[in-house]
Specification:
The complex is a heterodimer of chains A (565) and B (402).
Chain A: H1 5-22, H2 38-46, H3 94-98, H4 112-124, E1 137-148, E2 160-170, E3 179-185, H5 186-199, H6 213-218, H7 221-241, H8 249-256, H9 266-271, H10 273-284, H11 290-295, H12 304-318, H13 331-385, H14 389-473, H15 479-556
Antiparallel strand pairs in A: 1-2, 2-3
Helix pairs in contact in A: 2-13, 4-15, 12-14, 13-14, 14-15
Chain B: E1 26-36, E2 43-52, E3 61-67, H1 68-81, H2 103-122, H3 130-137, H4 140-150, H5 157-176, H6 187-237, H7 242-318, H8 324-390, H9 393-401
Antiparallel strand pairs in B: 1-2, 2-3
Classes of the chains: A mainly alpha (565), B mainly alpha (402).
C-alpha cells in the first residue's frame, strides 16, 4: 500500500476523492431524521455531501487533502492543482473494496472469508435467517420537486408543496412489475401511516417521519427537503422490511398507484364529525358494518360519544370502580412492558454515549491532521532555510512524522464514518421502541373498548331488570314499559355482538403483540450482535492500520532510541 | 571575568563508563518537589543533588534545597555574564493560580528544571561558571541573600540594564545626529535573525496542536469510559447472548479508556513538553540576538565617538592648545572603552557561531528522540487497541452462531 512517494500521491488523491464521494452514497445508512442531537450534526458534517447537487468539498480548500507536493522538493504551492473536484462520480462501495482489516499482518486465525463475511454483515447489516434472503425489495426516494396546489377559489395564488419520486425495485410477486415510480407528497405519507395504524393494530409499525413544522421554518428549504427525503426513504425501507406490512394493500397502493393516492385521507375521516354523534347508536342497532367499526379505536373526530364512554370507563378503572370482567391480568405482559421501557431508556443512553464517542474520534482525527500539517510547514521551512546538515536531518525526521500524522488522521476519519454506520443501529432501535409502544397502546385501547362495552351491557341489563320489575307490578301488562324492555333487549343483543367482536379484536391484537415482540426481540438480538461485530471489526482494522503507520516511523527513527527497554 | 584557558570538557550525567573516577564529571538532578509555606506565600521547593569529582566543588556529593526563583536568579546571572551564549530556557512562571500546585504541573516543572541545570552543567563554557557553583552548593540562607540582591522592583536586572542602555543610546543618537537605528547588515546574520523569528511561529503552532492532541486523547478516553458503562447497562436489559456480548464490549471499552489516559500523559511529557522547550529555547535565542544588537550599537557608537575625539585631539595638537593633555586622556579612555566594546561584540559573534551549531545539533537529537517516543507510544496504543477488540471477536462469533 505504501509505494514510492511520487506514485502514491496520485493514488492517495484518488483514494481521498473516492472517500469523499463515498460519503454521498445513498446506500449508506446515514440518517438525518428524528432527533436534533449533536450525533446528527456530527454525522451530517461527516456526510455533508448527501445531496447530489451539492459539490463535494473541493480538495483545494481542505489543506489536509493537499497532495503532498511538499514532498517533491519542488517549489509548488500546496494546493492540488489538477484535482477534478467538480464532477460527481458514482461512488463505489468503498467499505467493501478498500477496507479489509485482515490484510496487513493479520494475526486472526485464518478467517479471510470470515472477514468478508463480517464486512458483508457489517456493511449491509442484514440478518442471516428468514425469507428475506432471496427477495428483493428496494425503495428509493429522490428528486424532490416543487409543485403548485391547484388553486382553490378561496385562496388566491395556490400554495406550493414538494413531491418526491418514489422508485421501487422488486421481484416480489405481489407487485405487478419489477420497477416502477410514483410521485408523492408528505401528506400522502401521513395518510399511509394512519391507514396502516388502523389496519395493523397490535403490530410494531415503524414510526413515520415527523411533520416538524418548526424545523421547516428554521432550516433552509433545501436542507429541510433533503433531510425529509432521507427520512422518507428510511421509513419506507423499514416498512418494506417488515414481514407483514410489506405485503399490505396500503403500501402496495402507495408505491404503485399513479396519480392521486387512493387511500382515505385522515381529514376525510375526521371531517365526519356530525356523523359521530349518530355512529354509536347505529353501532348499537345492527347496522351491517357496525361491528366492524367497533373494531376501530375511537377517533376524536367522529366517535366522540364512544370516546366519552370509554373515557368514563377508563376513569372508573383507575379510580377502582367495580372491577371490569376482563382485566389486564397478564403479568407477563406487564413485565414485558416494564422491560421494554427499561430497554428503551438504556438504548437512549447508549445512543447518546455513542454520539460522544463518534465526536471524540472525529476530534482526534482532526487534531492529528492539524498537527501533521503544522509539521509539514516546519519541514518546508527548515529545508528552505537549512544552513547545517543537522537541520536537514531534522527536517527529514519531521517529514516522516508529519506524513504519518496525516495518514493516521485520514484513518481516524474513515474509522469514524464506519463507526457511525454501525452505531446507528442504536438510533434505529429508538424508532422501533416507539413502534413497540404503539403496539402496546393498541392493546390497551382495545381492552378499554371491551371493558366499556361490558359495563355498557351490565348497565343496560340493570335498566332492563328494573323495568321488568316495575312492569310486573302493573296488572295486565304495561304496554309502554314492555315495549321499552323489548327495545332494551334488542340493544343488549347488539351490544353483546359488538362486545364479542371487540373481544375477538382484543385477542387478535394480543396475538399480534406477542408475535411482533417475539420477532422484534429476535431481530434486535441479531442486529445488536451484528452491530457489535461490525463495530469491533472496524476498530480492529483501523487500529492495525494506524499501528503500522506509527511502527514504521518508530523504526525509521530507531537511531534515537534512548530507552533500555 | 571568565578564564580564557581552554576549558576542560566535563561530562555530565551520561559519563563514559571507562574511567569514571579519572574523567571529570558533574551531574545534577532536581528531585522531590515539596510544597512549603501557607496560602499566598506557598511555594514548591526542590532537592538539587550534585555529584562531581571536580576540585572546585566541595566534596563528591552535595544536596541543597532550591526554589523556582533561585533558578531564575541563576539564569539571569548567566545571561548577564555569558553574552552570546544561548542560555537554556526556564519553564514559565505559573499561569493560573489553581493549576500551580497540580501534580501534573509540578512534575512538568521539575522535569524542565532538571533539564535546565543539566544543560548548563554540560555546556563547555557555562559549566565553569561561579554562579553555577554558588547555585549548586551555597546553603539556603546564602542563596536567599543572593537572590534578594538581584530582585527588586525590576524582576530582571537585565531588563533594567537594557532600559538604561536604550536611553543612553537614544541620547548619543541625538548627540551624534543619527536617526536611523544601527544594525548589523551582513546577509548571513540577517538570514539567521529571520530564521529564528520565523521558527518561533512555526514551532508555537506545532506545540499548540500537540497540546490539543493530548486533550483529544483524554477526551477519547473519557468517551470510551462512558460508552462502556452505557453499553453494560444496556446489556443488563437484554437476555443472552446479547447481554453478555454487551457486557464484554463495555468492559473492553473501559479498559481501553485507561490506556488512552496513560498515553495522553506520555504524549504530554515526551512530545508536547519537548516542543514547548524548543519554543522557549528559540525565545532565549531572541534575547541573545537583542544582546548582540545592543553590543553592536555600543561598539559602533564608541568607535564613532573615539574617532571624533581623535579628530578633536589632532586639532588641538595643531593649535598647540593647553587642553591637549586633557583631551589626550579623554581620548585614551574612550579608545579603551571602544576597544572593550568591540571585543565584547566580537566575542558575542564568535560564541553565537558556535552556539548555533550546537543548538541545531542538540535540537535534531532532542526532536528525534521526541518523535521516536511519540511514534512508539502511538504504535503501542494502536496495537493494544487492536488486540483488545480482537479478543472479543471469537466470543461475538460464538454468540451469533447461537
Amino acid at each position: 500500500m505504501m509505494g514510492s512517494e511520487n506514485d502514491q500521491e496520485e493514488s492517495k488523491e484518488k483514494m481521498e476523492s473516492l472517500f469523499l464521494r463515498e460519503e454521498s452514497d445513498p446506500l449508506t445508512r446515514s440518517d438525518k431524521s428524528n432527533s436534533n442531537s449533536t450525533y446528527r450534526s456530527a454525522m451530517s458534517t461527516l456526510s455533508d455531501s448527501r445531496h447530489p447537487s451539492i459539490v463535494v468539498t473541493p480538495a483545494d480548500s481542505d489543506p489536509l487533502f493537499a497532495p503532498p507536493s511538499y514532498f517533491n522538493e519542488s517549489r509548488s504551492k500546496p494546493n492540488g492543482g489538477n484535482r477534478d473536484s467538480s464532477s460527481y462520480l458514482e461512488p463505489p462501495s468503498y467499505a467493501d473494496v478498500i477496507f479489509s482489516p485482515f490484510d496487513d499482518n493479520s494475526e486472526i486465525n485464518g478467517s479471510d472469508d470470515g472477514g468478508s463475511r463480517h464486512i458483508q454483515s457489517s456493511d449491509s447489516l442484514s440478518r442471516s435467517p428468514s425469507s428475506l434472503s432471496s427477495d428483493y425489495f428496494k425503495i428509493t426516494v429522490s428528486s424532490p420537486q416543487k409543485e403548485q396546489e391547484s388553486t382553490n377559489s378561496m385562496i388566491p395564488g395556490g400554495t406550493t408543496y414538494v413531491t418526491y419520486q418514489i422508485t421501487t425495485r422488486t421481484n416480489l410477486s405481489e407487485y405487478g412489475g419489477s420497477e416502477f415510480s410514483v410521485r408523492r407528497r408528505f401528506r400522502d405519507v401521513v395518510t399511509l401511516a394512519d391507514r396502516l395504524a388502523e389496519s395493523y393494530r397490535g403490530f410494531c409499525i415503524p414510526p413515520r417521519p415527523d411533520k416538524s413544522v418548526v424545523e421547516s421554518q428554521v432550516m433552509q428549504k433545501q436542507e429541510f427537503v433533503e433531510q425529509r427525503r432521507v427520512a422518507l426513504e428510511k421509513y419506507l425501507r423499514r416498512l418494506a422490511s417488515h414481514p407483514v406490512i410489506r405485503n399490505s394493500d396500503e403500501l402496495k397502493v402507495f408505491l404503485q398507484a399513479q396519480g392521486k393516492l387512493p387511500l382515505a385521507t385522515s381529514t376525510d375521516v375526521a371531517s365526519r364529525m356530525l356523523d359521530g354523534a349518530v355512529k354509536l347508536p347505529k353501532q348499537l342497532f345492527s347496522e351491517a358494518s357496525s361491528s366492524v367499526e367497533v373494531v376501530q379505536p375511537a377517533r376524536g373526530g367522529r366517535d366522540f360519544l364512544r370516546l366519552f364512554k370509554e373515557l368514563r370507563q377508563s376513569v372508573s378503572n383507575d379510580w377502582g370502580g367495580p372491577k371490569p370482567a376482563v382485566v389486564e391480568e397478564d403479568k407477563e405482559f406487564l413485565e414485558k412492558k416494564e422491560k421494554m421501557y427499561d430497554l428503551e431508556q438504556q438504548i437512549i443512553n447508549a445512543s447518546q454515549q455513542a454520539e460522544s464517542l463518534v465526536k471524540a474520534q472525529q476530534d482526534m482525527g482532526e487534531t492529528m491532521g492539524e498537527l501533521g500539517l503544522a509539521f509539514i510547514k516546519l519541514t518546508k521551512f527548515e529545508n528552505e532555510e537549512a544552513v547545517f546538515n543537522s537541520q536537514r536531518a531534522r527536517a527529514n525526521d519531521m517529514k516522516n512524522l508529519a506524513t504519518s500524522a496525516v495518514k493516521a488522521s485520514r484513518f481516524y476519519r474513515e474509522l469514524n464514518s464506519q463507526t457511525v454506520k454501525h452505531l446507528d443501529t442504536l438510533h434505529d432501535y429508538l424508532g422501533l421502541m416507539m413502534a413497540v409502544q404503539g403496539a402496546f397502546a393498541d392493546r390497551s385501547s382495545a381492552l378499554l373498548t371491551v371493558q366499556t362495552l361490558l359495563s355498557e351491557i351490565s348497565s343496560l341489563e340493570g335498566r332492563a331488570e328494573k323495568l321488568e320489575a316495575a312492569s310486573l307490578k302493573v296488572f295486565g301488562g304495561d304496554k309502554s314499559r314492555i315495549k321499552k324492555i323489548e327495545e332494551l333487549k334488542e340493544t343488549i343483543k347488539v351490544t353483546e355482538d359488538s362486545k364479542n367482536v371487540a373481544i375477538r379484536e382484543y385477542e387478535q391484537i394480543k396475538e399480534n403483540n406477542w408475535c411482533e415482540v417475539e420477532r422484534l426481540d429476535r431481530e434486535r438480538r441479531a442486529d445488536f450482535l451484528n452491530m457489535m461485530k461490525g463495530f469491533v471489526v472496524n476498530q480492529v482494522g483501523y487500529a492495525e492500520k494506524i499501528a503500522n503507520v506509527w511502527t514504521k516511523v518508530a523504526e525509521d527513527t530507531s537511531q534515537y532510541n534512548r530507552e533500555s527497554s | 571575568m571568565e578564564s580564557t584557558e581552554q576549558p576542560r570538557s566535563i561530562s555530565g550525567s551520561m559519563q563514559s563508563p571507562r574511567s569514571p573516577s579519572l574523567q571529570p564529571y558533574l551531574s545534577v538532578s532536581v528531585t522531590d518537589p515539596v510544597k512549603l509555606g501557607n496560602g499566598v506565600q506557598a511555594y514548591i521547593s526542590y532537592r538539587v543533588i550534585t555529584k562531581t569529582n571536580l576540585p572546585e566543588y566541595q566534596g563528591p556529593e552535595k544536596i541543597v534545597i532550591r526554589r523556582y526563583s533561585d533558578f531564575v536568579w541563576l539564569r539571569d546571572r548567566l545571561f548577564e555574564k555569558y553574552k552570546g551564549i544561548f542560555i537554556p530556557p526556564l519553564p514559565e512562571k505559573s499561569a493560573v493560580e489553581k493549576f500551580r500546585f497540580s501534580a501534573e504541573f509540578i512534575e512538568m516543572r521539575r522535569a524542565a528544571l532538571d533539564i535546565f541545570v543539566n544543560r548548563i552543567a554540560l555546556h563547555p563554557e557555562l559549566q565553569h561558571s561561579e554562579d553555577l557553583r554558588t547555585f549548586l552548593q551555597a546553603d539556603e540562607e546564602t542563596m536567599d541573600r543572593f537572590r534578594f540582591q538581584e530582585t527588586g522592583i525590576f524582576k530582571k536586572p537585565a531588563d533594567l540594564m537594557q532600559m538604561f542602555r536604550d536611553v543612553q543610546s537614544k541620547v548619543s543618537d541625538a548627540v551624534l545626529g543619527k536617526e536611523k537605528p544601527v544594525e548589523e547588515t551582513t546577509a548571513a546574520y540577517e538570514k539567521l535573525k529571520h530564521y529564528i523569528f520565523e521558527l518561533e511561529n512555526h514551532l508555537a503552532e506545532a506545540q499548540k496542536h500537540a497540546y490539543r492532541l493530548v486533550k483529544r486523547h483524554r477526551e477519547l478516553g473519557q468517551s470510551l469510559l462512558d460508552f462502556g458503562k452505557a453499553v453494560k447497562l444496556l446489556g443488563a436489559c437484554e437476555g443472552e447472548p446479547t447481554g453478555k456480548a454487551f457486557s464484554d464490549l463495555g468492559t473492553k471499552s473501559e479498559l481501553l479508556s485507561i490506556k488512552l489516559q496513560k498515553e495522553a500523559q506520555q504524549v504530554l511529557m515526551n512530545f508536547e513538553e519537548p516542543l514547548k522547550d524548543y519554543v522557549r529555547y528559540v525565545q532565549s535565542i531572541k534575547a541573545t540576538i537583542a544582546e548582540r544588537g545592543t553590543a553592536f550599537k555600543q561598539h559602533c557608537e564608541l568607535a564613532e565617538t573615539t574617532k571624533l575625539k581623535e579628530i578633536n585631539l589632532d586639532k588641538l595638537m595643531l593649535t598647540r592648545s593647553d587642553k591637549v593633555g586633557e583631551a589626550e586622556i579623554e581620548y585614551r579612555e574612550i579608545k579603551a572603552e571602544s576597544e572593550e566594546a568591540t571585543r565584547r561584540f566580537e566575542r558575542i559573534v564568535t560564541r553565537m557561531e558556535e552556539e548555533i551549531v550546537r543548538f541545531q545539533e542538540q535540537k535534531t537529537e532532542e526532536m528525534g528522540v521526541a518523535f521516536h517516543q511519540f511514534a512508539k507510544g502511538q504504535a503501542r496504543l494502536a496495537c493494544s487497541i487492536a488486540d483488545a477488540w480482537k479478543s472479543l471477536l471469537p466470543k461475538l462469533e460464538a454468540s451469533s452462531a447461537v
